[in-house]
Amino acid sequence: MAKTKARVKVPKSVNKGEVFQVKTLISHKMETGQRKNKKTGKIIPRMIINKFVCQYNGKDAFVADWHPAMSANPYMAFYLKVGESGNLDFIWTDDKGNVSKKSAKLNVTG
Amino acid sequence: MGKVHLGTLLVAGSLLIAGSAAADGKFGKYANGEIRSGYTYMTPQSKAIQDDDVENPGMIWVDDGAELYEKVDGEAGKSCKACHGKAEVAMKGVATTFPKYDDATKKIKNIEAQVNRCRAKHMKAKPWKYESNELLAMTVFIRHQSRGMPMNVSVDGPAVKFFQDGEKFFNQRRGSLDLACKHCHQDHAGKLARANVLTQGQVNGFPTYRLKWQKVGSTHRRFRGCNKNVRATPYKYASEEYMNLELYVAWRGRGLPVETPAVRN
Predict the structure, then answer these.
(1) How far is A84 from chain B, CA to nearest CA, in Å?
(2) Domains identified in chain A and CATH numbers
(3) Cβ separation of A73 and B133 shorter than 8 Å?
(4) Of A32, A70, A101, B264, which is least surrounded by CB within 10 A?
């Protein structure tokens, strides 16, 4: 797939100080750099998402460096705790510098 | 007295039915009597991936298919939606009846074939290559609209001949290993082939996201893989042999819910 496609799931609203789960999924072939082209014998260059960032209101909330041996179409789930309502931005960056973005709104009550 | 007896019999009868339903309850909606979906053979971890729509990578293809469904393509300037309307309504239940007999070609067609027919005939667009991402996405999307509905293909009337051919294929030994589909998927389902659990080979979840493939794949890709595994020369994608086999295998899984996109290892 030329264009990546992301899916994100956050709760519609959470209580202040509550720990909640965020789930993300993105389409990416995650070429490891270990495989050879069967016809030419040449190594297929590495092409993976190497950085995943989740920002909350513009500030880093969760950051992960990814390495080879991640599966294709990587799924990532993590937990957050926030104090006020705001925007969650998800940013995936791959080896070629392509950036995929997705954002979600979060309502904090109480 | 006669009436009372009849009543008792009826009660006993309904108890019996309830009893067998409870026995089936072990696999819930994923089984129809002895017919078991591949889902029931999976590890809890793999089941969890399929159960959660965010975690299930097959859903990416559903999203893709939804976009393609509304995209205008070809000289006629039409999208799928232009003729069919909303997919949630128009495509609901479609997957349960495919593959089916096709009057135009006098052969069996599956959803992939139908999509390409529509593209060529009504949209005047180039047919998609079999196993291409576009065709997979569209097939996944269409089948996804019937998720949870029981498989119910028609194998009578003009389809009988093709159904019998499919059955013959299923029972025919092939390849250097001299194995037929039935040896693994009928006689030895549930046992191990090396470290893999053999399933009944049901197709209700196809095109499924296979963890080994790292993407979704069609029934015909699975058939080809199986044929290679027994050291037989696989048939081509969309070949008549595989269409007939797909019909037979879909009938074998009658009553199983459509699970597309299923996740398998």
Answers:
(1) 25
(2) 6-109 (2.60.40.10)
(3) no
(4) A101
